[in-house]
Amino acid sequence: MRLTRSGTATQALCRPCARPGGLSLREVQVLAELTRGRTNREIAGNLSIAVRTVRHAHRAHLRQTGPSQSRRSSRPSGRLGA
Q: What is the CA radius of gyration of the chain?
């Protein structure tokens, strides 16, 4: 997976098999923004999506990885934020 920035937006570019935990591309993009410490509202603005979509993507991550893994990966020092 590779993260690229275009202005204020961050894009996650990856092959379907490289997505962690079977997350969708949008869910990976939201997770990448979370690792940078952004709020749901900031993420929604950066990705041009609704705040509700951000919450849905975050919940999908929680369901697939469990709460303890989610806390680790959404910290600013998480893997996707490096």
A: 11
